[in-house]
Design goal:
heterodimer, A: mainly alpha, two-stranded antiparallel sheet, 2 strands, 72% helix, B: mainly alpha, MetI-like fold, 2 domains, 70% helix
Protein backbone atom coordinates (compact mmCIF):
# COMPACT_ATOMS: atom_id res chain seq x y z
CA UNK A 1 0.00 0.00 0.00
CA UNK A 2 2.64 2.50 1.09
CA UNK A 3 4.79 1.98 -2.01
CA UNK A 4 1.83 2.79 -4.18
CA UNK A 5 1.41 6.15 -2.51
CA UNK A 6 5.07 7.01 -3.04
CA UNK A 7 5.22 5.92 -6.65
CA UNK A 8 2.13 7.84 -7.66
CA UNK A 9 2.29 11.18 -5.96
CA UNK A 10 -0.28 12.74 -8.30
CA UNK A 11 -3.06 10.57 -6.91
CA UNK A 12 -4.93 11.69 -3.85
CA UNK A 13 -2.81 10.38 -1.01
CA UNK A 14 -4.42 7.29 0.45
CA UNK A 15 -4.96 6.95 4.13
CA UNK A 16 -3.04 4.18 5.78
CA UNK A 17 -4.91 0.96 6.37
CA UNK A 18 -5.27 1.52 10.09
CA UNK A 19 -6.56 5.04 9.55
CA UNK A 20 -9.16 3.74 7.16
CA UNK A 21 -10.22 1.10 9.63
CA UNK A 22 -10.48 3.74 12.31
CA UNK A 23 -12.57 5.83 9.96
CA UNK A 24 -14.89 2.92 9.17
CA UNK A 25 -15.17 2.09 12.85
CA UNK A 26 -16.09 5.70 13.59
CA UNK A 27 -18.74 5.64 10.86
CA UNK A 28 -20.09 2.40 12.24
CA UNK A 29 -20.35 3.73 15.75
CA UNK A 30 -21.99 6.89 14.51
CA UNK A 31 -24.59 4.83 12.63
CA UNK A 32 -25.14 2.12 15.18
CA UNK A 33 -28.90 2.55 15.06
CA UNK A 34 -28.77 1.52 11.38
CA UNK A 35 -27.29 -1.84 12.35
CA UNK A 36 -29.88 -2.25 15.04
CA UNK A 37 -32.62 -1.78 12.43
CA UNK A 38 -31.03 -4.15 9.97
CA UNK A 39 -30.14 -6.87 12.48
CA UNK A 40 -33.35 -8.96 12.56
CA UNK A 41 -33.60 -9.26 8.80
CA UNK A 42 -29.87 -9.69 8.28
CA UNK A 43 -29.51 -12.51 10.81
CA UNK A 44 -32.37 -14.53 9.33
CA UNK A 45 -31.34 -13.67 5.76
CA UNK A 46 -27.80 -14.90 6.36
CA UNK A 47 -28.92 -18.04 8.16
CA UNK A 48 -31.49 -19.16 5.61
CA UNK A 49 -30.32 -17.65 2.32
CA UNK A 50 -26.64 -16.67 2.25
CA UNK A 51 -25.31 -19.53 4.35
CA UNK A 52 -27.31 -22.14 2.37
CA UNK A 53 -25.80 -20.89 -0.89
CA UNK A 54 -22.28 -21.30 0.50
CA UNK A 55 -23.09 -24.60 2.20
CA UNK A 56 -24.63 -25.87 -1.03
CA UNK A 57 -21.45 -25.11 -2.95
CA UNK A 58 -19.41 -26.94 -0.31
CA UNK A 59 -21.74 -29.96 -0.21
CA UNK A 60 -21.68 -30.25 -3.99
CA UNK A 61 -18.07 -31.44 -3.69
CA UNK A 62 -18.90 -34.13 -1.15
CA UNK A 63 -20.66 -37.42 -0.81
CA UNK A 64 -23.32 -36.86 1.83
CA UNK A 65 -26.20 -39.16 2.72
CA UNK A 66 -27.31 -37.34 5.93
CA UNK A 67 -26.44 -40.35 8.15
CA UNK A 68 -22.66 -40.12 7.82
CA UNK A 69 -20.66 -36.86 7.81
CA UNK A 70 -19.96 -35.43 4.33
CA UNK A 71 -16.89 -36.89 2.60
CA UNK A 72 -14.90 -34.74 0.14
CA UNK A 73 -14.91 -36.21 -3.35
CA UNK A 74 -13.87 -33.25 -5.51
CA UNK A 75 -15.51 -32.81 -8.87
CA UNK A 76 -16.99 -36.35 -9.06
CA UNK A 77 -20.58 -35.20 -8.58
CA UNK A 78 -20.25 -32.78 -11.45
CA UNK A 79 -18.60 -35.22 -13.83
CA UNK A 80 -21.19 -37.85 -12.98
CA UNK A 81 -23.92 -35.28 -13.57
CA UNK A 82 -22.77 -34.07 -16.96
CA UNK A 83 -21.19 -37.19 -18.36
CA UNK A 84 -23.22 -40.11 -17.09
CA UNK A 85 -26.60 -38.97 -15.84
CA UNK A 86 -28.89 -39.23 -18.88
CA UNK A 87 -31.92 -38.24 -16.88
CA UNK A 88 -30.17 -35.03 -15.85
CA UNK A 89 -29.43 -34.17 -19.45
CA UNK A 90 -33.09 -34.76 -20.24
CA UNK A 91 -33.99 -32.52 -17.30
CA UNK A 92 -31.67 -29.81 -18.61
CA UNK A 93 -33.32 -30.01 -22.02
CA UNK A 94 -36.80 -29.78 -20.54
CA UNK A 95 -35.76 -26.90 -18.31
CA UNK A 96 -34.39 -25.04 -21.32
CA UNK A 97 -37.69 -25.52 -23.14
CA UNK A 98 -39.60 -24.17 -20.14
CA UNK A 99 -37.22 -21.27 -19.66
CA UNK A 100 -37.20 -20.35 -23.34
CA UNK A 101 -40.97 -20.63 -23.70
CA UNK A 102 -42.58 -19.63 -20.41
CA UNK A 103 -40.04 -16.94 -19.46
CA UNK A 104 -40.34 -14.66 -22.49
CA UNK A 105 -43.97 -15.53 -23.26
CA UNK A 106 -45.11 -14.75 -19.73
CA UNK A 107 -43.06 -11.56 -19.71
CA UNK A 108 -44.54 -10.22 -22.93
CA UNK A 109 -48.01 -11.42 -22.06
CA UNK A 110 -47.86 -9.58 -18.74
CA UNK A 111 -46.64 -6.43 -20.43
CA UNK A 112 -49.15 -6.64 -23.28
CA UNK A 113 -52.14 -7.30 -21.02
CA UNK A 114 -51.09 -4.57 -18.61
CA UNK A 115 -50.83 -2.18 -21.53
CA UNK A 116 -54.25 -3.13 -22.89
CA UNK A 117 -55.88 -2.93 -19.47
CA UNK A 118 -54.30 0.42 -18.80
CA UNK A 119 -55.97 1.93 -21.85
CA UNK A 120 -59.41 1.21 -20.43
CA UNK A 121 -61.51 3.06 -17.96
CA UNK A 122 -62.92 -0.08 -16.31
CA UNK A 123 -59.90 -2.08 -15.25
CA UNK A 124 -60.78 -3.69 -11.94
CA UNK A 125 -62.49 -6.79 -13.27
CA UNK A 126 -59.84 -7.55 -15.88
CA UNK A 127 -56.96 -7.10 -13.47
CA UNK A 128 -58.60 -9.49 -11.05
CA UNK A 129 -59.40 -12.07 -13.74
CA UNK A 130 -55.82 -12.26 -14.96
CA UNK A 131 -54.18 -12.01 -11.57
CA UNK A 132 -56.38 -14.45 -9.63
CA UNK A 133 -54.87 -17.66 -11.10
CA UNK A 134 -51.44 -16.70 -9.75
CA UNK A 135 -52.70 -16.69 -6.17
CA UNK A 136 -54.40 -20.07 -6.35
CA UNK A 137 -52.54 -22.51 -4.17
CA UNK A 138 -50.80 -25.47 -5.77
CA UNK A 139 -53.50 -27.69 -4.35
CA UNK A 140 -56.30 -25.73 -5.97
CA UNK A 141 -54.41 -25.54 -9.24
CA UNK A 142 -53.97 -29.32 -9.31
CA UNK A 143 -57.63 -29.92 -8.45
CA UNK A 144 -58.84 -27.65 -11.20
CA UNK A 145 -56.64 -28.80 -14.02
CA UNK A 146 -56.76 -32.51 -13.26
CA UNK A 147 -60.50 -32.39 -13.93
CA UNK A 148 -59.91 -30.43 -17.07
CA UNK A 149 -57.38 -32.85 -18.49
CA UNK A 150 -58.78 -36.03 -16.91
CA UNK A 151 -58.03 -39.18 -18.86
CA UNK A 152 -61.58 -40.54 -19.08
CA UNK A 153 -64.53 -39.02 -20.87
CA UNK A 154 -65.42 -37.03 -17.76
CA UNK A 155 -62.42 -34.86 -18.51
CA UNK A 156 -63.76 -31.57 -19.81
CA UNK A 157 -61.25 -31.29 -22.62
CA UNK A 158 -61.81 -34.85 -23.83
CA UNK A 159 -65.55 -34.30 -23.68
CA UNK A 160 -65.39 -31.07 -25.65
CA UNK A 161 -63.07 -32.49 -28.32
CA UNK A 162 -65.11 -35.64 -28.77
CA UNK A 163 -68.25 -33.56 -29.00
CA UNK A 164 -66.67 -31.38 -31.65
CA UNK A 165 -65.56 -34.46 -33.56
CA UNK A 166 -61.86 -33.64 -33.32
CA UNK A 167 -61.01 -36.92 -31.62
CA UNK A 168 -62.87 -40.21 -31.23
CA UNK A 169 -61.11 -41.73 -28.22
CA UNK A 170 -60.33 -39.90 -24.98
CA UNK A 171 -56.67 -38.90 -24.74
CA UNK A 172 -54.63 -39.48 -21.56
CA UNK A 173 -53.41 -35.89 -21.53
CA UNK A 174 -51.40 -36.10 -18.33
CA UNK A 175 -49.79 -39.44 -19.03
CA UNK A 176 -48.99 -39.04 -22.71
CA UNK A 177 -45.36 -38.08 -23.24
CA UNK A 178 -46.27 -35.75 -26.11
CA UNK A 179 -48.97 -33.76 -24.36
CA UNK A 180 -47.61 -33.48 -20.81
CA UNK A 181 -45.08 -30.80 -21.55
CA UNK A 182 -47.37 -28.43 -23.49
CA UNK A 183 -49.99 -28.78 -20.75
CA UNK A 184 -47.50 -27.90 -18.03
CA UNK A 185 -46.47 -24.86 -20.07
CA UNK A 186 -50.07 -23.76 -20.59
CA UNK A 187 -50.93 -24.12 -16.91
CA UNK A 188 -47.83 -22.24 -15.81
CA UNK A 189 -48.60 -19.44 -18.26
CA UNK A 190 -52.12 -19.37 -16.86
CA UNK A 191 -50.62 -18.81 -13.40
CA UNK A 192 -47.94 -16.38 -14.50
CA UNK A 193 -49.73 -13.01 -14.34
CA UNK A 194 -48.27 -12.20 -10.95
CA UNK A 195 -46.09 -9.58 -9.29
CA UNK A 196 -44.60 -8.53 -12.62
CA UNK A 197 -48.04 -7.93 -14.09
CA UNK A 198 -49.03 -5.72 -11.16
CA UNK A 199 -45.74 -3.85 -11.37
CA UNK A 200 -46.25 -3.14 -15.08
CA UNK A 201 -49.80 -1.96 -14.45
CA UNK A 202 -48.54 0.32 -11.70
CA UNK A 203 -45.78 1.74 -13.88
CA UNK A 204 -48.22 2.44 -16.71
CA UNK A 205 -50.64 4.10 -14.33
CA UNK A 206 -47.94 6.34 -12.93
CA UNK A 207 -46.80 7.60 -16.32
CA UNK A 208 -46.68 11.36 -16.55
CA UNK A 209 -49.32 12.50 -19.11
CA UNK A 210 -47.19 15.53 -19.96
CA UNK A 211 -44.62 13.23 -21.55
CA UNK A 212 -47.23 12.11 -24.05
CA UNK A 213 -48.16 15.71 -24.77
CA UNK A 214 -44.51 16.51 -25.39
CA UNK A 215 -44.25 13.41 -27.58
CA UNK A 216 -47.12 14.61 -29.75
CA UNK A 217 -45.31 17.85 -30.34
CA UNK A 218 -42.22 15.88 -31.35
CA UNK A 219 -44.16 13.90 -33.94
CA UNK A 220 -45.29 10.78 -32.12
CA UNK A 221 -48.41 9.79 -34.03
CA UNK A 222 -49.68 6.37 -33.07
CA UNK A 223 -50.27 4.57 -29.84
CA UNK A 224 -47.62 2.08 -30.77
CA UNK A 225 -45.01 4.79 -31.28
CA UNK A 226 -46.06 6.29 -27.98
CA UNK A 227 -45.55 2.94 -26.32
CA UNK A 228 -42.20 2.26 -27.97
CA UNK A 229 -40.57 5.68 -27.65
CA UNK A 230 -42.07 7.04 -24.45
CA UNK A 231 -43.64 4.37 -22.24
CA UNK A 232 -41.05 1.61 -22.50
CA UNK A 233 -37.98 3.73 -21.77
CA UNK A 234 -39.76 5.22 -18.75
CA UNK A 235 -40.61 1.87 -17.23
CA UNK A 236 -37.19 0.27 -17.62
CA UNK A 237 -36.72 -0.36 -13.88
CA UNK A 238 -40.05 -2.17 -13.72
CA UNK A 239 -39.26 -4.09 -16.89
CA UNK A 240 -35.99 -5.26 -15.39
CA UNK A 241 -37.74 -6.38 -12.24
CA UNK A 242 -40.50 -8.10 -14.21
CA UNK A 243 -38.06 -9.91 -16.46
CA UNK A 244 -36.00 -11.22 -13.54
CA UNK A 245 -39.18 -12.44 -11.87
CA UNK A 246 -40.20 -14.13 -15.14
CA UNK A 247 -36.86 -15.93 -15.34
CA UNK A 248 -36.98 -17.08 -11.73
CA UNK A 249 -40.57 -18.23 -12.11
CA UNK A 250 -39.89 -20.10 -15.34
CA UNK A 251 -37.56 -22.33 -13.34
CA UNK A 252 -40.24 -22.87 -10.73
CA UNK A 253 -42.44 -24.47 -13.41
CA UNK A 254 -41.34 -27.75 -11.85
CA UNK A 255 -43.89 -27.32 -9.06
CA UNK A 256 -46.67 -27.19 -11.65
CA UNK A 257 -45.17 -30.22 -13.37
CA UNK A 258 -45.05 -32.15 -10.10
CA UNK A 259 -48.62 -31.21 -9.20
CA UNK A 260 -49.97 -32.32 -12.57
CA UNK A 261 -47.78 -35.21 -13.62
CA UNK A 262 -46.15 -36.42 -10.41
CA UNK A 263 -42.51 -36.82 -9.38
CA UNK A 264 -40.83 -38.47 -11.19
CA UNK A 265 -43.13 -37.97 -14.17
CA UNK A 266 -43.87 -40.80 -16.62
CA UNK A 267 -40.81 -41.35 -18.86
CA UNK A 268 -39.34 -38.21 -17.23
CA UNK A 269 -41.30 -36.25 -19.84
CA UNK A 270 -41.70 -33.17 -17.64
CA UNK A 271 -38.61 -33.72 -15.50
CA UNK A 272 -36.72 -30.48 -14.81
CA UNK A 273 -33.46 -29.64 -13.07
CA UNK A 274 -35.49 -28.75 -9.98
CA UNK A 275 -37.40 -32.06 -10.04
CA UNK A 276 -34.10 -33.89 -10.46
CA UNK A 277 -32.70 -32.10 -7.44
CA UNK A 278 -35.78 -32.84 -5.35
CA UNK A 279 -35.71 -36.44 -6.45
CA UNK A 280 -32.10 -36.93 -5.29
CA UNK A 281 -32.39 -34.76 -2.18
CA UNK A 282 -35.66 -35.77 -0.59
CA UNK A 283 -36.39 -39.18 -2.07
CA UNK A 284 -32.91 -40.74 -2.40
CA UNK A 285 -31.18 -38.59 0.25
CA UNK A 286 -28.04 -38.13 -1.84
CA UNK A 287 -27.52 -34.61 -0.60
CA UNK A 288 -24.08 -34.09 -2.12
CA UNK A 289 -25.21 -35.01 -5.60
CA UNK A 290 -28.41 -33.01 -5.21
CA UNK A 291 -26.36 -30.02 -4.08
CA UNK A 292 -24.31 -30.21 -7.27
CA UNK A 293 -27.58 -30.06 -9.20
CA UNK A 294 -28.72 -27.02 -7.26
CA UNK A 295 -25.38 -25.29 -7.84
CA UNK A 296 -25.85 -25.80 -11.58
CA UNK A 297 -29.34 -24.38 -11.22
CA UNK A 298 -28.08 -21.43 -9.20
CA UNK A 299 -25.40 -20.59 -11.76
CA UNK A 300 -27.92 -20.79 -14.63
CA UNK A 301 -30.56 -18.62 -12.97
CA UNK A 302 -28.09 -16.11 -11.66
CA UNK A 303 -26.29 -15.92 -14.99
CA UNK A 304 -29.50 -15.33 -16.92
CA UNK A 305 -30.60 -12.62 -14.48
CA UNK A 306 -27.21 -10.92 -14.76
CA UNK A 307 -27.57 -10.88 -18.55
CA UNK A 308 -30.98 -9.24 -18.23
CA UNK A 309 -29.44 -6.78 -15.81
CA UNK A 310 -26.84 -5.82 -18.41
CA UNK A 311 -29.45 -5.54 -21.15
CA UNK A 312 -31.99 -3.46 -19.29
CA UNK A 313 -29.97 -1.30 -16.94
CA UNK A 314 -30.92 2.32 -17.22
CA UNK B 1 -46.24 6.89 -40.90
CA UNK B 2 -49.51 5.40 -41.95
CA UNK B 3 -48.88 1.73 -41.38
CA UNK B 4 -51.95 -0.03 -40.04
CA UNK B 5 -51.16 0.16 -36.38
CA UNK B 6 -53.29 -1.70 -33.91
CA UNK B 7 -54.88 0.99 -31.83
CA UNK B 8 -55.36 4.58 -32.83
CA UNK B 9 -56.03 6.82 -29.91
CA UNK B 10 -59.59 7.92 -29.88
CA UNK B 11 -60.18 11.04 -27.92
CA UNK B 12 -63.80 10.22 -27.29
CA UNK B 13 -65.41 6.89 -26.57
CA UNK B 14 -63.99 3.75 -25.10
CA UNK B 15 -61.90 1.32 -27.17
CA UNK B 16 -64.56 -1.36 -27.56
CA UNK B 17 -62.28 -3.64 -29.53
CA UNK B 18 -59.93 -3.93 -26.57
CA UNK B 19 -62.84 -4.55 -24.22
CA UNK B 20 -64.02 -7.38 -26.42
CA UNK B 21 -60.56 -8.94 -26.75
CA UNK B 22 -59.88 -8.74 -23.02
CA UNK B 23 -63.32 -10.09 -22.16
CA UNK B 24 -62.74 -13.15 -24.30
CA UNK B 25 -59.32 -13.68 -22.75
CA UNK B 26 -60.68 -13.14 -19.24
CA UNK B 27 -63.36 -15.74 -19.84
CA UNK B 28 -60.78 -18.29 -21.00
CA UNK B 29 -58.48 -17.54 -18.07
CA UNK B 30 -61.34 -17.43 -15.59
CA UNK B 31 -63.08 -20.59 -16.78
CA UNK B 32 -61.09 -23.06 -14.65
CA UNK B 33 -61.68 -21.00 -11.52
CA UNK B 34 -65.35 -20.69 -12.39
CA UNK B 35 -65.69 -24.44 -12.88
CA UNK B 36 -63.97 -25.05 -9.55
CA UNK B 37 -66.40 -22.69 -7.83
CA UNK B 38 -69.53 -24.26 -9.30
CA UNK B 39 -68.25 -27.79 -8.72
CA UNK B 40 -67.93 -26.96 -5.04
CA UNK B 41 -71.68 -26.29 -4.91
CA UNK B 42 -72.96 -29.04 -7.24
CA UNK B 43 -74.62 -32.04 -5.61
CA UNK B 44 -73.13 -35.42 -6.54
CA UNK B 45 -75.83 -36.28 -9.07
CA UNK B 46 -75.05 -33.11 -10.99
CA UNK B 47 -71.31 -33.76 -10.90
CA UNK B 48 -71.96 -37.17 -12.44
CA UNK B 49 -74.06 -35.68 -15.21
CA UNK B 50 -72.53 -36.19 -18.56
CA UNK B 51 -72.07 -33.87 -20.43
CA UNK B 52 -70.99 -31.61 -17.55
CA UNK B 53 -73.19 -28.57 -16.98
CA UNK B 54 -71.84 -25.06 -16.80
CA UNK B 55 -74.25 -23.98 -14.09
CA UNK B 56 -75.62 -25.36 -10.85
CA UNK B 57 -79.26 -26.41 -10.62
CA UNK B 58 -79.56 -27.21 -6.90
CA UNK B 59 -76.67 -25.62 -5.05
CA UNK B 60 -75.65 -27.52 -1.93
CA UNK B 61 -73.16 -27.17 0.89
CA UNK B 62 -72.75 -30.94 1.30
CA UNK B 63 -69.15 -30.92 0.00
CA UNK B 64 -68.12 -28.47 2.67
CA UNK B 65 -69.66 -30.63 5.38
CA UNK B 66 -68.06 -33.68 3.72
CA UNK B 67 -64.74 -31.96 4.00
CA UNK B 68 -65.26 -31.41 7.70
CA UNK B 69 -66.32 -35.03 8.23
CA UNK B 70 -63.48 -36.48 6.17
CA UNK B 71 -60.93 -34.52 8.12
CA UNK B 72 -62.68 -35.30 11.39
CA UNK B 73 -62.13 -38.97 10.73
CA UNK B 74 -58.38 -38.38 10.88
CA UNK B 75 -56.54 -38.16 14.20
CA UNK B 76 -56.50 -34.42 14.40
CA UNK B 77 -59.64 -32.24 14.32
CA UNK B 78 -60.20 -30.02 11.30
CA UNK B 79 -59.99 -26.92 13.45
CA UNK B 80 -56.36 -27.73 14.20
CA UNK B 81 -55.38 -27.38 10.54
CA UNK B 82 -57.28 -24.12 10.26
CA UNK B 83 -55.59 -22.88 13.41
CA UNK B 84 -52.14 -23.91 12.14
CA UNK B 85 -52.64 -22.13 8.83
CA UNK B 86 -54.01 -18.95 10.36
CA UNK B 87 -51.44 -18.89 13.17
CA UNK B 88 -48.48 -19.45 10.86
CA UNK B 89 -49.71 -16.98 8.25
CA UNK B 90 -50.29 -14.23 10.79
CA UNK B 91 -46.87 -14.71 12.42
CA UNK B 92 -45.12 -14.77 9.05
CA UNK B 93 -46.99 -11.74 7.71
CA UNK B 94 -46.38 -9.60 10.81
CA UNK B 95 -42.76 -10.60 11.24
CA UNK B 96 -41.76 -10.41 7.60
CA UNK B 97 -43.37 -7.02 6.98
CA UNK B 98 -41.86 -5.64 10.17
CA UNK B 99 -38.33 -6.92 9.57
CA UNK B 100 -38.52 -5.80 5.93
CA UNK B 101 -39.55 -2.26 6.90
CA UNK B 102 -36.96 -2.01 9.66
CA UNK B 103 -34.16 -3.21 7.44
CA UNK B 104 -35.26 -1.19 4.41
CA UNK B 105 -35.17 2.12 6.26
CA UNK B 106 -31.37 2.28 6.78
CA UNK B 107 -30.86 0.53 3.44
CA UNK B 108 -32.48 3.53 1.78
CA UNK B 109 -31.38 6.36 4.03
CA UNK B 110 -28.19 5.46 5.86
CA UNK B 111 -24.60 5.61 4.59
CA UNK B 112 -23.23 3.32 7.29
CA UNK B 113 -20.49 0.93 6.12
CA UNK B 114 -21.90 -2.37 4.89
CA UNK B 115 -25.31 -1.01 3.93
CA UNK B 116 -24.52 -1.05 0.25
CA UNK B 117 -23.09 -4.55 0.45
CA UNK B 118 -26.23 -5.84 2.13
CA UNK B 119 -28.41 -4.20 -0.51
CA UNK B 120 -26.38 -5.78 -3.30
CA UNK B 121 -26.73 -9.17 -1.63
CA UNK B 122 -30.49 -8.68 -1.44
CA UNK B 123 -30.72 -7.76 -5.13
CA UNK B 124 -28.58 -10.81 -5.93
CA UNK B 125 -30.94 -12.97 -3.86
CA UNK B 126 -33.86 -11.76 -6.02
CA UNK B 127 -32.18 -13.41 -8.96
CA UNK B 128 -32.56 -17.01 -7.86
CA UNK B 129 -35.40 -19.00 -6.48
CA UNK B 130 -35.36 -20.31 -2.93
CA UNK B 131 -35.60 -23.78 -4.48
CA UNK B 132 -31.86 -23.56 -5.04
CA UNK B 133 -31.12 -23.41 -1.34
CA UNK B 134 -33.67 -26.02 -0.31
CA UNK B 135 -31.14 -28.71 0.67
CA UNK B 136 -28.83 -26.72 2.95
CA UNK B 137 -31.83 -24.94 4.40
CA UNK B 138 -33.35 -28.27 5.24
CA UNK B 139 -30.09 -29.39 6.87
CA UNK B 140 -29.78 -26.14 8.83
CA UNK B 141 -33.33 -26.40 10.10
CA UNK B 142 -32.94 -30.00 11.16
CA UNK B 143 -29.55 -29.09 12.69
CA UNK B 144 -31.27 -26.45 14.78
CA UNK B 145 -33.77 -29.07 15.90
CA UNK B 146 -36.68 -27.14 14.39
CA UNK B 147 -38.23 -29.92 12.33
CA UNK B 148 -41.92 -30.32 13.11
CA UNK B 149 -42.17 -27.09 15.09
CA UNK B 150 -43.81 -23.79 14.29
CA UNK B 151 -40.30 -22.32 14.12
CA UNK B 152 -39.48 -24.24 10.95
CA UNK B 153 -42.67 -23.06 9.28
CA UNK B 154 -42.21 -19.39 10.17
CA UNK B 155 -38.61 -18.32 10.77
CA UNK B 156 -36.99 -19.21 7.41
CA UNK B 157 -39.65 -17.42 5.35
CA UNK B 158 -39.60 -14.28 7.50
CA UNK B 159 -36.57 -12.76 5.80
CA UNK B 160 -37.85 -12.16 2.27
CA UNK B 161 -35.42 -10.42 -0.03
CA UNK B 162 -38.29 -9.24 -2.22
CA UNK B 163 -40.18 -7.54 0.64
CA UNK B 164 -37.08 -5.76 1.89
CA UNK B 165 -36.09 -4.76 -1.62
CA UNK B 166 -39.58 -3.39 -2.29
CA UNK B 167 -39.68 -1.32 0.91
CA UNK B 168 -36.17 -0.02 0.30
CA UNK B 169 -37.16 1.20 -3.16
CA UNK B 170 -40.19 2.91 -1.65
CA UNK B 171 -38.22 4.63 1.13
CA UNK B 172 -35.58 5.68 -1.37
CA UNK B 173 -38.20 7.64 -3.31
CA UNK B 174 -39.34 9.49 -0.20
CA UNK B 175 -37.74 12.88 0.53
CA UNK B 176 -35.13 12.95 3.31
CA UNK B 177 -35.89 16.51 4.39
CA UNK B 178 -38.66 15.46 6.76
CA UNK B 179 -36.26 13.10 8.51
CA UNK B 180 -33.64 15.82 8.87
CA UNK B 181 -36.27 18.13 10.31
CA UNK B 182 -37.22 15.43 12.78
CA UNK B 183 -33.58 14.91 13.77
CA UNK B 184 -33.13 18.62 14.41
CA UNK B 185 -36.16 18.48 16.68
CA UNK B 186 -34.26 15.89 18.69
CA UNK B 187 -36.11 12.71 17.72
CA UNK B 188 -34.14 9.49 17.94
CA UNK B 189 -34.01 7.08 15.01
CA UNK B 190 -36.42 4.71 16.73
CA UNK B 191 -38.96 7.52 17.21
CA UNK B 192 -38.44 8.78 13.67
CA UNK B 193 -39.10 5.32 12.35
CA UNK B 194 -42.39 4.80 14.16
CA UNK B 195 -43.71 8.37 14.14
CA UNK B 196 -42.66 9.53 10.67
CA UNK B 197 -41.32 6.81 8.40
CA UNK B 198 -43.91 4.11 8.98
CA UNK B 199 -47.03 6.33 8.86
CA UNK B 200 -45.81 7.88 5.59
CA UNK B 201 -45.09 4.45 4.13
CA UNK B 202 -48.48 3.02 4.97
CA UNK B 203 -49.55 2.41 1.34
CA UNK B 204 -46.35 0.47 0.71
CA UNK B 205 -46.50 -1.79 3.73
CA UNK B 206 -50.21 -2.30 3.26
CA UNK B 207 -49.42 -3.69 -0.19
CA UNK B 208 -46.65 -5.77 1.27
CA UNK B 209 -49.00 -7.18 3.90
CA UNK B 210 -51.27 -8.47 1.15
CA UNK B 211 -48.41 -9.99 -0.82
CA UNK B 212 -46.99 -11.54 2.33
CA UNK B 213 -50.39 -13.00 3.14
CA UNK B 214 -50.60 -14.58 -0.31
CA UNK B 215 -47.13 -16.00 0.06
CA UNK B 216 -47.61 -17.36 3.57
CA UNK B 217 -51.08 -18.79 2.97
CA UNK B 218 -49.99 -20.62 -0.19
CA UNK B 219 -46.63 -21.79 1.17
CA UNK B 220 -47.04 -25.53 0.86
CA UNK B 221 -43.33 -26.18 0.34
CA UNK B 222 -42.40 -25.42 3.97
CA UNK B 223 -45.21 -27.57 5.32
CA UNK B 224 -44.29 -30.50 3.08
CA UNK B 225 -40.60 -30.35 3.98
CA UNK B 226 -40.64 -29.47 7.65
CA UNK B 227 -43.67 -31.17 9.17
CA UNK B 228 -43.77 -34.78 10.26
CA UNK B 229 -46.72 -35.12 12.62
CA UNK B 230 -50.37 -34.76 11.73
CA UNK B 231 -50.85 -32.00 14.31
CA UNK B 232 -48.38 -29.68 12.60
CA UNK B 233 -49.87 -29.88 9.12
CA UNK B 234 -51.33 -26.78 7.56
CA UNK B 235 -54.77 -26.68 5.95
CA UNK B 236 -53.72 -27.01 2.29
CA UNK B 237 -51.34 -29.87 3.05
CA UNK B 238 -53.87 -31.72 5.17
CA UNK B 239 -56.51 -31.46 2.49
CA UNK B 240 -54.04 -32.52 -0.15
CA UNK B 241 -53.13 -35.69 1.72
CA UNK B 242 -56.76 -36.60 2.22
CA UNK B 243 -57.77 -35.97 -1.36
CA UNK B 244 -54.72 -37.11 -3.26
CA UNK B 245 -55.80 -39.31 -6.13
CA UNK B 246 -59.25 -37.75 -6.01
CA UNK B 247 -61.69 -39.46 -8.37
CA UNK B 248 -65.03 -38.20 -9.51
CA UNK B 249 -66.64 -39.11 -6.18
CA UNK B 250 -64.35 -36.74 -4.35
CA UNK B 251 -64.49 -34.09 -7.08
CA UNK B 252 -66.97 -31.94 -5.20
CA UNK B 253 -65.14 -32.05 -1.90
CA UNK B 254 -61.87 -31.38 -3.69
CA UNK B 255 -63.35 -28.33 -5.37
CA UNK B 256 -64.74 -27.17 -2.03
CA UNK B 257 -61.27 -27.53 -0.50
CA UNK B 258 -59.65 -25.67 -3.37
CA UNK B 259 -62.24 -22.92 -3.07
CA UNK B 260 -61.68 -22.64 0.69
CA UNK B 261 -57.95 -22.21 0.28
CA UNK B 262 -58.13 -19.82 -2.67
CA UNK B 263 -61.05 -17.60 -1.69
CA UNK B 264 -59.47 -15.64 1.22
CA UNK B 265 -56.58 -14.40 -0.92
CA UNK B 266 -58.77 -13.46 -3.86
CA UNK B 267 -61.29 -11.65 -1.66
CA UNK B 268 -58.55 -9.62 0.04
CA UNK B 269 -57.19 -8.67 -3.35
CA UNK B 270 -60.61 -7.59 -4.63
CA UNK B 271 -60.94 -5.06 -1.84
CA UNK B 272 -57.41 -3.74 -1.89
CA UNK B 273 -56.57 -3.97 -5.58
CA UNK B 274 -56.37 -0.23 -6.21
CA UNK B 275 -54.10 0.33 -3.26
CA UNK B 276 -51.80 -2.54 -4.24
CA UNK B 277 -51.35 -1.31 -7.78
CA UNK B 278 -50.79 2.27 -6.68
CA UNK B 279 -47.57 1.28 -4.89
CA UNK B 280 -46.27 -1.59 -6.99
CA UNK B 281 -44.32 0.70 -9.34
CA UNK B 282 -41.67 0.92 -6.61
CA UNK B 283 -40.63 -2.65 -7.33
CA UNK B 284 -38.54 -1.42 -10.28
CA UNK B 285 -34.80 -2.14 -10.26
CA UNK B 286 -32.52 0.67 -11.36
CA UNK B 287 -29.59 -1.23 -12.78
Amino acid sequence: MATQVISRPTKRPKKSLSARWADTWFQMKKNKSAYFFMAPFTIIFFTFTVLPVLAGIFLSFTYFNVLQPPRWIGWSNYSLLFLEDDVFLKAVRNTMVYAVVTGPVSFFLQLFLAWLINSLRYRVGFTLAFYAPSVTSGLAMGMIWRVFFATDMYGYLNYALIRLGVIYEPIAWLEDVDTMMPIVIIVSLWMSMSVGFLTFLAALQNMDPELYEAGKVDGVRTRFQEFWYITLPCMKPQLLFGSIMAVVRSFEVSSVATALTGLPSPMYATHTIVSHMQDYAFIRFEMGYASAISVVLFVTMFGLSRILFRLLRS
Amino acid sequence: MSIALPFRRKLKGEPWGIYLLLTIMAIIVGLPLYLMTINAFKPLEELLLWPPRYYVMNPTLEHFTDLLLATNASLVPFSRYVFNSLFIASIVVTASVLTACMCAYPLAKSKAPGVKLLFNLIVAALMFSSLVTAIPRFLIISGLGMIDTYWALTLPVVASSFYTFFMRQFFEAQPSEILDAGRIDGAGEWQLFWKLVMPLAKPAWATLTIMAWQGAWNDEASAIMFTRSEAMKTLPLAIQTIFSGAGIARLGAGAAAALLTTAPTVIIFIFLQKRVIATMAHAGIKG
